[in-house]
């Protein structure tokens, strides 16, 4: 039981790891959970009450709280730092710790069985937002182990009752357990077959409309702004190829720029894991502004923004353009700052800002509606002549950029493709343009694109298998092909230019949230390359195609594909339902019949006695057929001492039953009246009895 419970808990933890992608957190939570199961098992084995653990537990919690406030590394072990800005991931981490803490409270088999609840909760949450095969594998393992757990717990409970003489014979018990196990497995498979796609579709809609703040809807796991009540903030990780998503026309911000429209960047990502892009470092620095009061009495703070780790000094950016932008907040709960190119200065009402190593800026508090902040930034030159003339050697690239933005994951197919695309080209600009053109020509833009399997590199899946996706897949493919071609590149997120309201004034909406690639040119800086430019948009076509397939048609199509093993499991399920459900209900509600071949008056006596026996069986005291009625009634008094109050009535009714069945004498109306009176008194008495009033029979007597 405890081993199976531990495996069930691990399935929930491993499922959450698919979202968190933090091996340290996963290993720590599994290790603590294992400690909890061992502790619970030892306490139960040696009859140590849980109360004895209260003082040590309080001491351990106190030490942990102290460690949390004194060491950030401890916090990162409990709640990984990269998820603290994403409420959905925080909920998943909390569910994990609920499961871990539960492992220290396993004082009974039923409590061990309850381990299925937090594990199932974790699997449900993750499956909605990470519909990948790895989640399904975890779920299959969960089904198998939890089925065993449930069957074994039921077996142990029934076996315990059997030893007390209160239940079925061993062969019947074994048969019931086998049927129950097969039934649970078959029911899981059938429900999975019938409900997988409807649940997936509903879950996707839910995740697109009510997902917790911290991720944008346009990219499903990078940025999310779904309503005015959600928070527009930046993630530290971009999960790629997460399946269908949506966008809408909700206005988020308005920007007025001194030099026209640009890509309004909010964050950059440089390390690729095969399924996501992350920031190589997540260190945050607090920067304070210089207060300035204006003639109208308003006060703002001016912030000078240090150069990011992967950026170069503005003085080294050839032919760069200085741009002034004014951003007006149109939605609430926005705490990230956006700007064109590299942000140099910020003027805002807030007294402090947070900056990460890669120049992403956030505010300490959410920006109020209609608030305005001013950005001064420098934008790299995009003139093809200047970009072609930039140095081509990696030795001209600063060390930090080479270290952070040339990392690959050993994908031979993508490397070969990059070299083929760039064959014969002599400068990085032409190579980057060729890669961009290739991706746009060979891949379709589709918000309804399928999710990338967990066991396949997301870029490889996009380029060589699905050939469709949205901006995260296009941007990641552009970055990685550039790197395989020897060109430094990184992933950027934010907004495209937006809807032009008037000259140099743009409205930024939810559908303008975007991800793109940036390519580094020595002496010039980071230049945006958007591989979605020129790509065919098939979102509408795929949506109409999906809508043309009604659920009933899908159901009939898939039911026809059911294999022989599935059919066999369905038959076993029907047998289980008959034996374990229908027969039990029928037994509980059927009218008690008198034995055949006896006079009617005798049958009335038999019915009265059997009605009392049926009530006793409902209390758990079954009449073993090898006992005579007299032997049965004698041992009833051992199991239920309180029944001595009705001793005369029970003995009288049992004696009349013996006479009516075995003597061959026709029972008189006077005897029937006596039996009815005794039976009524016994029924009234038994209606007040509960199973807790039953005690183990004395001696070695067993009811079976």
Q: Concise description?
A:
By secondary structure, this protein is an alpha+beta fold. The protein folds into five domains: 2-167, no CATH class; 237-384, no CATH class; 389-539, Roll (C8orf32 fold); 552-589; 600-693. The chain has 22 helices and 22 strands.
Distance between the termini: 26 Å
- The share of residues in extended strands comes to 15-25%
Global mean pLDDT: 77
Coarse shape: elongated
Tally of DSSP β-strands: 22
Query: How many helical elements?
Result: 22
* Spans where pLDDT lies below 50 across 5 or more residues: 163-172, 203-231, 546-565, 587-591, 696-704
Trace the largest sheet across and list its strands. Answer: 7-8-12-15-9-2-20-19
Counted up, domains total 5
What is the alpha-carbon Rg in Å? 36 Å
Sheet with the most strands, sense and barrel status: 8 strands, antiparallel
Give the helix level as a range of percent. 40-55%
Based on secondary structure, the structural category is alpha+beta
Describe the structure.
- The chain folds into five domains: 166 residues, no CATH class; 148 residues, no CATH class; 151 residues, C8orf32 fold; 38 residues; 94 residues.
- α1 runs antiparallel to α2, α3 packs across α4 and α19 packs across α21.
- It has an eight-stranded antiparallel beta sheet, with no helix packed on it. A five-stranded antiparallel beta sheet has the order 11-3-18-21-22.
- It is built from 22 helices and 22 strands.
- A hairpin with a 2-residue loop joins β19 and β20.
- It has 704 residues and is of the alpha+beta class.
- The C terminus is likely disordered.
